[in-house]
Write a structure and sequence with these properties.
single chain; 93 residues; alpha+beta; 5-stranded mixed sheet; 2 helices; 5 strands
């Protein structure tokens, strides 16, 4: 089992529509830890950590599943970041 961490920036209509909660539910369902935070530019920045294959499912979910009913994902950019062993759950800020 290979643990990785990724940082994902999601742009579109992702603030004020429950998007961070949407991300948190999926992350928890997949067993990921990390966070989702609104950014000043209107995007949401998510940090997710877990098994490499599960992270791929998380990215696929963010890329192909539109948050209902008012949200819209225009782009998902990701990069690998350092694993943080202190993370124990998925939070929203």
């Amino acid at each position: 089992m290979t643990i990785q961490a990724i940082q994902v920036q999601v742009t579109g209509r992702v603030q004020g529509v429950g998007f961070r909660y949407f991300v948190k539910l999926e992350a928890k369902r997949l067993g990921l830890v990390g966070s989702a935070t609104n950014q000043a530019d209107g995007s949401v920045l998510a940090l997710a950590q877990g098994e490499e294959t599960v992270l791929a499912d998380f990215i696929d979910f963010l890329t192909h599943r539109q948050p209902a009913p008012y949200g819209r994902v225009d782009a998902v950019q990701q990069k690998i970041v350092a694993v943080n062993p202190q993370l124990t759950r998925f939070e929203t800020h």
